Amino acid sequence: METGPLIDNLLSPPILFFFLGMLATLVRSDLKIPGELSRLFSLYLLWAIGFKGGVALRSAGLGMDTLLPLIMAVILSAVTPLYIAPLLRAARFRAADACATAGAYGSVSVVTFITAQKFLENQGIGFGGHLVAALALMEAPAIITGVMLYRAMSEGSSARQLFGARRGELKHLLHEAVVSGPVFLLLGSIAIGALTGSRGWQSLEPFGKDLFDGVLVLFLLDSGLTASRELKNITGSKRLAAGVSVLIPLINAVLGLIIVAALGMTRADGFLFIILAASASYIAVPAAMKLAIPEANAGLYLPMALGLTFPFNITLGIPLYYAAAGWVTDGP
Q: Integer distance in angstroms from the first to the last C-alpha of the chain?
């Protein structure tokens, strides 16, 4: 693996501030980011990445080069829980915990994706905006599959019987996933960016570009504080959870790499696709699973996704996945 990108990534201000947040919790500092500010940072980052991605999507157009990755991203999100849940069951996870965790690892982390984009920008590498749409589209399928899979395990029904009998619930889950605040803002920002194009971006560039790095740093500082707290709260076998939290992203990254090679994507776009495949949701999925699978232990799958997988992906994972993308693609 190339050591230059690894060192550059670890020494970048956003990553260092993430570790500062984790350190603050470990040494019991009273440093904290007010909840309202944290939510504002989240909304800003979602708007900025969605709007800029929509502008890039309009510039690139909707050809097969952009549509096929979107289709494969949705399929990957939908099928990931189907093999992750049995793997977790074999590791002695309860059915509810296995399905909820599988849903988290089939979905995506917006902040991991944003950090990966920043990694490319720091190296002056361009990338397509269409994968921002994939980011938004991958939230819902894994949630739905994870919930329906749990229903099948609980009732002893086949997947076909269950999906047919619960179409109303399926529609409800899909609706809730799409209209949830983060996904709705991201989808809406993509649409507005695509409609207004470069003229729209020029009018908002000072707000969307100049402030972005500072907001990302503060958000990752807050993420470090939260991740460290969640890691301390993890229940069950910590050694097993730690192993699974690294193993699953690597398995998903390999599947993403295979798709990248099959579609002939560029290195930068392939890298971002692998990031989507390897990341885990710690915002949308926990909120959905709390309602859909209340039996699942949030003290297990949330710390795994946020306290273990997220730090691994943004520190070691990003340069590793970028190097892997270089094995099957052309480009810098």
A: 14
pLDDT at 3: 60
91 Cβ contact partners less than 8 Å away, ≥ 6 residues apart? 240, 244
* Angle, helix 238-263 to helix 318-328, in steps of 10 degrees: 30
* Spatial CA neighbour of 100 closest among 294, 252, 306: 294
Query: What tokens were used for 139?
Result: 């939230």
Q: Provide the residue type at 287 as one letter.
A: A
Question: pTM of the full predicted structure?
Answer: 0.81
Owner of token pair 């749990």: 150
Residue 275 near residue 69 (C-beta atoms within 8 A): no
Best CA proximity match to 201, nearest among 22, 78, 299, 59: 59
Structure confidence by residue, pLDDT tens digits, 263-285: 999 999 999 999 999 999 887 77
Write down how long the chain is. 332
Q: What is the amino acid identity at position 279?
A: S
Please say whether the dihedral angle defined by the alpha carbons of residues 163, 169, 172 and 173, taken in this order, is positive or negative: negative
CA distance 260 to 331: 13
Count of CB atoms situated within 10 Å of the CB of 6: 17
